[in-house]
Amino acid sequence: MRAQRVEPADVQDERVAACRARTRRGSVPTALLALQRTAGNRATVRALRMLSRDPAPVLEAPVDPLAASFDFKATSDAVAAAASDYAAGKTTERKHALIRALKRVVRLATPEQQQEVRKALEGKLGVTDATAVWAEAGTAFGGYTGMFPGFAPDVKRELGNLGASDTVSFGTFELTGDARKHRARAKAVAAGELSDLARTDIVYFRGHQFAQYRAPGLFSNGDETSGSDLRYVDKAGGFPNVKLMISTSCATLCLEAFEVFNRLFPNAVILGYRKSAPLHGEAVRRALTAKIKSIGRPLLLDERTDIAAIIDAWKQVIEQQHKGESAPVPGFYDGADIQYWDGTTWGTIAPRDPHNVCKRKGDFRGQYPAPP
Fold it and tell me: Does residue 275 contact residue 251 with C-beta atoms inside 8 Å?
Protein backbone atom coordinates (compact mmCIF):
# COMPACT_ATOMS: atom_id res chain seq x y z
CA MET A 1 0.00 0.00 0.00
CA ARG A 2 1.41 3.37 -0.99
CA ALA A 3 2.08 5.76 1.89
CA GLN A 4 -0.04 8.94 2.11
CA ARG A 5 2.02 11.98 1.10
CA VAL A 6 2.23 14.50 3.95
CA GLU A 7 3.10 18.09 3.14
CA PRO A 8 4.91 20.44 5.52
CA ALA A 9 2.60 22.44 7.83
CA ASP A 10 3.36 25.78 6.16
CA VAL A 11 2.43 24.42 2.74
CA GLN A 12 -0.77 22.94 4.17
CA ASP A 13 -1.58 26.31 5.73
CA GLU A 14 -1.30 27.92 2.29
CA ARG A 15 -3.61 25.34 0.75
CA VAL A 16 -6.15 25.74 3.56
CA ALA A 17 -6.09 29.51 3.01
CA ALA A 18 -6.71 28.91 -0.69
CA CYS A 19 -9.56 26.59 0.20
CA ARG A 20 -11.10 29.25 2.42
CA ALA A 21 -10.79 31.81 -0.37
CA ARG A 22 -12.57 29.44 -2.78
CA THR A 23 -15.46 29.06 -0.35
CA ARG A 24 -15.97 32.80 -0.55
CA ARG A 25 -16.29 32.58 -4.34
CA GLY A 26 -18.11 29.28 -4.67
CA SER A 27 -19.26 26.19 -2.80
CA VAL A 28 -17.42 24.51 0.09
CA PRO A 29 -17.57 21.05 -1.57
CA THR A 30 -15.98 22.40 -4.75
CA ALA A 31 -13.16 24.02 -2.80
CA LEU A 32 -12.53 20.92 -0.72
CA LEU A 33 -12.49 18.63 -3.73
CA ALA A 34 -9.85 20.85 -5.30
CA LEU A 35 -7.84 20.73 -2.09
CA GLN A 36 -8.15 16.96 -1.86
CA ARG A 37 -6.88 16.54 -5.43
CA THR A 38 -3.77 18.64 -4.73
CA ALA A 39 -2.94 18.03 -1.05
CA GLY A 40 -4.47 14.69 -0.06
CA ASN A 41 -7.00 13.59 2.53
CA ARG A 42 -5.12 14.77 5.65
CA ALA A 43 -5.01 18.34 4.43
CA THR A 44 -8.69 18.12 3.56
CA VAL A 45 -9.57 16.95 7.07
CA ARG A 46 -7.46 19.75 8.51
CA ALA A 47 -9.27 22.26 6.29
CA LEU A 48 -12.67 21.00 7.46
CA ARG A 49 -11.63 21.48 11.09
CA MET A 50 -10.36 24.98 10.47
CA LEU A 51 -13.40 25.97 8.39
CA SER A 52 -15.70 24.79 11.17
CA ARG A 53 -13.96 27.27 13.48
CA ASP A 54 -13.87 30.05 10.89
CA PRO A 55 -16.73 29.57 8.43
CA ALA A 56 -16.76 31.52 5.19
CA PRO A 57 -19.28 34.38 5.01
CA VAL A 58 -22.53 33.69 3.18
CA LEU A 59 -22.84 35.81 0.05
CA GLU A 60 -26.17 37.61 -0.17
CA ALA A 61 -27.96 38.34 -3.42
CA PRO A 62 -27.79 42.01 -4.45
CA VAL A 63 -30.81 44.07 -3.45
CA ASP A 64 -33.05 45.02 -6.37
CA PRO A 65 -33.01 48.82 -6.78
CA LEU A 66 -36.82 48.82 -6.90
CA ALA A 67 -37.24 46.79 -3.70
CA ALA A 68 -37.81 49.78 -1.42
CA SER A 69 -40.79 51.01 -3.45
CA PHE A 70 -42.40 47.60 -4.08
CA ASP A 71 -46.01 47.30 -2.91
CA PHE A 72 -47.38 43.82 -3.55
CA LYS A 73 -51.05 44.77 -3.21
CA ALA A 74 -50.78 47.70 -5.62
CA THR A 75 -48.70 45.61 -8.05
CA SER A 76 -51.03 42.61 -7.98
CA ASP A 77 -54.02 44.93 -8.52
CA ALA A 78 -52.24 46.46 -11.54
CA VAL A 79 -51.53 42.97 -12.92
CA ALA A 80 -55.17 41.95 -12.45
CA ALA A 81 -56.40 45.06 -14.29
CA ALA A 82 -53.92 44.57 -17.13
CA ALA A 83 -54.85 40.87 -17.39
CA SER A 84 -58.56 41.75 -17.64
CA ASP A 85 -57.81 44.26 -20.40
CA TYR A 86 -55.76 41.69 -22.29
CA ALA A 87 -58.41 39.00 -21.89
CA ALA A 88 -61.00 41.40 -23.32
CA GLY A 89 -58.93 42.09 -26.43
CA LYS A 90 -55.62 40.39 -27.06
CA THR A 91 -53.68 43.18 -28.73
CA THR A 92 -49.91 43.56 -28.62
CA GLU A 93 -50.16 46.81 -26.68
CA ARG A 94 -52.31 45.21 -23.97
CA LYS A 95 -50.05 42.19 -23.76
CA HIS A 96 -47.02 44.43 -23.31
CA ALA A 97 -48.76 46.40 -20.55
CA LEU A 98 -49.47 43.13 -18.75
CA ILE A 99 -45.90 41.89 -19.15
CA ARG A 100 -44.45 45.12 -17.80
CA ALA A 101 -46.76 44.94 -14.77
CA LEU A 102 -45.74 41.32 -14.20
CA LYS A 103 -42.04 42.19 -14.26
CA ARG A 104 -42.29 43.71 -10.79
CA VAL A 105 -43.85 40.51 -9.48
CA VAL A 106 -41.16 38.36 -11.09
CA ARG A 107 -38.43 40.62 -9.70
CA LEU A 108 -39.68 41.45 -6.23
CA ALA A 109 -42.49 39.21 -4.97
CA THR A 110 -41.94 36.22 -2.71
CA PRO A 111 -42.42 32.73 -4.19
CA GLU A 112 -45.77 32.50 -2.41
CA GLN A 113 -46.90 35.86 -3.82
CA GLN A 114 -45.75 34.86 -7.30
CA GLN A 115 -47.77 31.65 -7.09
CA GLU A 116 -50.83 33.65 -6.04
CA VAL A 117 -50.48 35.95 -9.05
CA ARG A 118 -49.86 33.07 -11.46
CA LYS A 119 -53.01 31.24 -10.33
CA ALA A 120 -55.09 34.38 -10.77
CA LEU A 121 -53.51 34.92 -14.18
CA GLU A 122 -54.34 31.37 -15.29
CA GLY A 123 -57.93 31.94 -14.19
CA LYS A 124 -58.22 34.98 -16.45
CA LEU A 125 -56.16 33.89 -19.47
CA GLY A 126 -55.90 30.11 -19.34
CA VAL A 127 -52.74 28.16 -18.62
CA THR A 128 -51.14 28.52 -22.07
CA ASP A 129 -51.40 32.31 -22.37
CA ALA A 130 -50.56 32.86 -18.69
CA THR A 131 -47.42 30.74 -19.03
CA ALA A 132 -46.35 32.67 -22.14
CA VAL A 133 -46.70 36.14 -20.65
CA TRP A 134 -45.06 35.03 -17.40
CA ALA A 135 -42.07 33.68 -19.32
CA GLU A 136 -41.69 36.91 -21.29
CA ALA A 137 -41.94 38.93 -18.09
CA GLY A 138 -38.78 37.17 -16.94
CA THR A 139 -36.66 38.55 -19.82
CA ALA A 140 -34.70 41.78 -20.17
CA PHE A 141 -36.67 43.35 -23.05
CA GLY A 142 -39.97 41.49 -22.74
CA GLY A 143 -42.96 43.80 -22.97
CA TYR A 144 -41.24 46.18 -25.38
CA THR A 145 -41.26 46.63 -29.16
CA GLY A 146 -37.92 46.72 -30.95
CA MET A 147 -37.17 48.16 -34.39
CA PHE A 148 -34.35 47.07 -36.69
CA PRO A 149 -33.36 47.96 -40.28
CA GLY A 150 -34.93 45.69 -42.88
CA PHE A 151 -31.53 44.69 -44.24
CA ALA A 152 -30.40 43.36 -40.79
CA PRO A 153 -32.38 40.31 -39.63
CA ASP A 154 -29.49 39.47 -37.30
CA VAL A 155 -30.44 42.50 -35.19
CA LYS A 156 -33.98 41.14 -34.97
CA ARG A 157 -32.45 37.97 -33.50
CA GLU A 158 -30.50 39.95 -30.91
CA LEU A 159 -33.69 41.72 -29.85
CA GLY A 160 -35.43 38.35 -29.63
CA ASN A 161 -32.60 36.91 -27.57
CA LEU A 162 -33.22 39.69 -25.06
CA GLY A 163 -36.94 38.88 -24.89
CA ALA A 164 -38.49 41.36 -27.34
CA SER A 165 -40.94 39.05 -29.09
CA ASP A 166 -42.58 41.95 -30.92
CA THR A 167 -40.27 43.55 -33.49
CA VAL A 168 -40.80 45.74 -36.55
CA SER A 169 -38.44 46.47 -39.41
CA PHE A 170 -37.73 49.92 -40.76
CA GLY A 171 -38.33 49.69 -44.50
CA THR A 172 -35.50 49.73 -47.00
CA PHE A 173 -35.15 50.85 -50.59
CA GLU A 174 -32.61 50.41 -53.36
CA LEU A 175 -29.67 52.79 -53.30
CA THR A 176 -28.76 53.74 -56.86
CA GLY A 177 -26.90 57.04 -56.50
CA ASP A 178 -29.67 58.85 -58.36
CA ALA A 179 -30.66 61.86 -56.25
CA ARG A 180 -34.20 62.17 -57.62
CA LYS A 181 -34.96 58.51 -57.02
CA HIS A 182 -33.41 58.65 -53.56
CA ARG A 183 -35.67 61.49 -52.47
CA ALA A 184 -38.82 59.81 -53.76
CA ARG A 185 -38.01 56.37 -52.34
CA ALA A 186 -36.75 57.61 -48.97
CA LYS A 187 -39.84 59.78 -48.50
CA ALA A 188 -42.23 56.97 -49.36
CA VAL A 189 -40.55 54.48 -47.04
CA ALA A 190 -40.33 56.95 -44.16
CA ALA A 191 -44.03 57.83 -44.43
CA GLY A 192 -44.86 54.16 -44.09
CA GLU A 193 -42.92 53.84 -40.85
CA LEU A 194 -44.76 56.46 -38.78
CA SER A 195 -47.22 54.04 -37.15
CA ASP A 196 -44.53 51.50 -36.28
CA LEU A 197 -42.25 54.18 -34.86
CA ALA A 198 -45.14 55.43 -32.71
CA ARG A 199 -45.22 52.09 -30.85
CA THR A 200 -41.49 51.35 -30.77
CA ASP A 201 -39.54 51.39 -27.52
CA ILE A 202 -36.08 50.31 -28.71
CA VAL A 203 -34.41 51.29 -31.99
CA TYR A 204 -31.46 49.01 -32.86
CA PHE A 205 -29.50 49.74 -36.06
CA ARG A 206 -26.31 48.55 -37.69
CA GLY A 207 -24.62 48.87 -41.10
CA HIS A 208 -22.99 51.87 -42.72
CA GLN A 209 -24.17 55.24 -41.40
CA PHE A 210 -23.14 58.17 -43.58
CA ALA A 211 -22.65 61.03 -41.12
CA GLN A 212 -18.96 61.15 -42.06
CA TYR A 213 -20.03 61.58 -45.70
CA ARG A 214 -22.42 64.47 -45.01
CA ALA A 215 -25.54 62.29 -45.10
CA PRO A 216 -26.28 61.72 -41.37
CA GLY A 217 -29.18 59.40 -40.64
CA LEU A 218 -28.76 57.28 -43.78
CA PHE A 219 -27.98 53.62 -43.05
CA SER A 220 -27.11 50.95 -45.60
CA ASN A 221 -26.18 47.30 -45.81
CA GLY A 222 -22.58 46.23 -46.33
CA ASP A 223 -22.46 46.52 -50.10
CA GLU A 224 -24.45 49.77 -50.15
CA THR A 225 -27.28 48.45 -52.28
CA SER A 226 -30.11 48.77 -49.76
CA GLY A 227 -30.73 51.50 -47.21
CA SER A 228 -32.99 53.32 -44.78
CA ASP A 229 -32.90 57.11 -44.49
CA LEU A 230 -34.15 58.42 -41.16
CA ARG A 231 -33.74 62.05 -42.28
CA TYR A 232 -37.00 61.68 -44.20
CA VAL A 233 -39.09 60.71 -41.15
CA ASP A 234 -41.25 63.78 -40.61
CA LYS A 235 -43.17 64.11 -37.35
CA ALA A 236 -43.42 67.17 -35.16
CA GLY A 237 -41.95 66.41 -31.76
CA GLY A 238 -40.51 63.11 -32.93
CA PHE A 239 -41.26 59.89 -31.06
CA PRO A 240 -40.92 60.39 -27.29
CA ASN A 241 -42.02 56.78 -26.78
CA VAL A 242 -38.58 55.52 -27.92
CA LYS A 243 -36.52 54.99 -24.78
CA LEU A 244 -33.33 53.43 -26.11
CA MET A 245 -31.36 53.60 -29.35
CA ILE A 246 -28.50 51.17 -29.93
CA SER A 247 -26.25 51.51 -32.97
CA THR A 248 -23.06 49.69 -33.87
CA SER A 249 -22.72 51.85 -36.97
CA CYS A 250 -20.14 54.59 -37.45
CA ALA A 251 -20.56 58.11 -36.12
CA THR A 252 -24.02 57.95 -34.53
CA LEU A 253 -22.93 60.24 -31.67
CA CYS A 254 -21.10 62.99 -33.57
CA LEU A 255 -22.91 66.30 -33.83
CA GLU A 256 -24.70 66.08 -37.19
CA ALA A 257 -25.91 62.53 -36.59
CA PHE A 258 -26.92 63.35 -33.03
CA GLU A 259 -29.13 66.16 -34.35
CA VAL A 260 -31.03 63.68 -36.55
CA PHE A 261 -31.52 61.04 -33.86
CA ASN A 262 -32.24 63.41 -30.98
CA ARG A 263 -34.88 65.18 -33.09
CA LEU A 264 -36.58 61.86 -33.81
CA PHE A 265 -36.11 60.26 -30.37
CA PRO A 266 -35.92 63.13 -27.85
CA ASN A 267 -36.24 60.88 -24.78
CA ALA A 268 -33.88 58.12 -25.88
CA VAL A 269 -30.56 57.14 -24.39
CA ILE A 270 -28.24 56.49 -27.34
CA LEU A 271 -25.49 53.87 -27.33
CA GLY A 272 -23.13 54.26 -30.27
CA TYR A 273 -19.87 55.65 -31.66
CA ARG A 274 -18.55 59.15 -32.22
CA LYS A 275 -16.21 57.98 -35.00
CA SER A 276 -15.67 54.80 -37.00
CA ALA A 277 -17.18 51.62 -35.59
CA PRO A 278 -15.60 48.22 -36.28
CA LEU A 279 -16.39 46.84 -39.73
CA HIS A 280 -17.76 43.64 -38.21
CA GLY A 281 -19.84 44.75 -35.24
CA GLU A 282 -21.37 41.37 -34.46
CA ALA A 283 -18.85 40.76 -31.68
CA VAL A 284 -19.98 43.94 -29.96
CA ARG A 285 -23.67 43.09 -30.44
CA ARG A 286 -23.30 39.55 -29.12
CA ALA A 287 -21.27 40.75 -26.15
CA LEU A 288 -23.90 43.37 -25.37
CA THR A 289 -26.68 40.78 -25.46
CA ALA A 290 -24.75 38.57 -23.06
CA LYS A 291 -23.92 41.48 -20.75
CA ILE A 292 -27.53 42.71 -20.60
CA LYS A 293 -28.68 39.19 -19.79
CA SER A 294 -26.10 39.05 -17.00
CA ILE A 295 -27.81 41.98 -15.26
CA GLY A 296 -29.99 39.17 -14.01
CA ARG A 297 -33.39 40.78 -13.79
CA PRO A 298 -36.29 41.76 -16.08
CA LEU A 299 -35.80 45.37 -17.11
CA LEU A 300 -38.23 48.28 -17.03
CA LEU A 301 -37.15 51.00 -19.43
CA ASP A 302 -39.13 53.69 -17.61
CA GLU A 303 -36.98 53.11 -14.52
CA ARG A 304 -33.80 55.16 -14.49
CA THR A 305 -31.95 52.51 -12.49
CA ASP A 306 -32.58 49.94 -15.23
CA ILE A 307 -31.50 52.30 -17.99
CA ALA A 308 -28.36 52.93 -15.92
CA ALA A 309 -27.78 49.15 -15.79
CA ILE A 310 -27.99 48.96 -19.59
CA ILE A 311 -25.54 51.84 -19.93
CA ASP A 312 -23.18 50.09 -17.52
CA ALA A 313 -23.46 46.90 -19.58
CA TRP A 314 -22.54 48.90 -22.72
CA LYS A 315 -19.58 50.48 -20.93
CA GLN A 316 -18.24 47.10 -19.87
CA VAL A 317 -18.55 45.75 -23.42
CA ILE A 318 -16.84 48.83 -24.86
CA GLU A 319 -13.96 48.66 -22.39
CA GLN A 320 -13.43 45.01 -23.28
CA GLN A 321 -13.89 45.26 -27.04
CA HIS A 322 -11.99 48.52 -27.55
CA LYS A 323 -9.27 48.42 -24.92
CA GLY A 324 -6.31 50.46 -26.14
CA GLU A 325 -8.12 51.60 -29.31
CA SER A 326 -8.28 55.37 -29.76
CA ALA A 327 -9.88 55.47 -33.22
CA PRO A 328 -13.52 54.33 -32.74
CA VAL A 329 -14.46 56.57 -29.76
CA PRO A 330 -17.57 54.63 -28.67
CA GLY A 331 -19.82 56.10 -26.04
CA PHE A 332 -23.36 56.98 -25.05
CA TYR A 333 -25.72 59.92 -24.70
CA ASP A 334 -27.52 59.83 -21.36
CA GLY A 335 -29.92 62.72 -21.84
CA ALA A 336 -27.39 65.38 -20.88
CA ASP A 337 -23.89 64.76 -22.18
CA ILE A 338 -22.02 62.29 -24.34
CA GLN A 339 -19.58 60.10 -22.46
CA TYR A 340 -16.96 58.47 -24.65
CA TRP A 341 -14.14 55.91 -24.38
CA ASP A 342 -10.74 56.88 -25.82
CA GLY A 343 -9.23 53.43 -25.37
CA THR A 344 -8.04 53.96 -21.82
CA THR A 345 -10.41 56.31 -19.99
CA TRP A 346 -13.90 57.80 -20.18
CA GLY A 347 -14.38 61.44 -21.12
CA THR A 348 -17.34 63.78 -21.46
CA ILE A 349 -18.37 66.19 -24.18
CA ALA A 350 -21.54 68.18 -24.84
CA PRO A 351 -23.40 66.79 -27.89
CA ARG A 352 -23.31 70.14 -29.68
CA ASP A 353 -19.74 71.03 -28.75
CA PRO A 354 -17.86 72.15 -31.90
CA HIS A 355 -15.27 69.47 -31.12
CA ASN A 356 -17.99 66.85 -31.63
CA VAL A 357 -18.54 67.58 -35.33
CA CYS A 358 -18.49 64.51 -37.53
CA LYS A 359 -15.21 63.66 -39.20
CA ARG A 360 -15.37 64.36 -42.95
CA LYS A 361 -14.34 61.44 -45.15
CA GLY A 362 -16.27 62.47 -48.25
CA ASP A 363 -19.40 64.17 -49.52
CA PHE A 364 -22.33 62.01 -50.70
CA ARG A 365 -24.96 64.76 -50.64
CA GLY A 366 -25.22 64.68 -54.41
CA GLN A 367 -26.25 61.02 -54.60
CA TYR A 368 -27.93 60.74 -51.16
CA PRO A 369 -29.54 64.16 -50.70
CA ALA A 370 -31.34 65.36 -47.58
CA PRO A 371 -35.03 66.28 -47.75
CA PRO A 372 -35.59 69.62 -49.49
Answer: yes
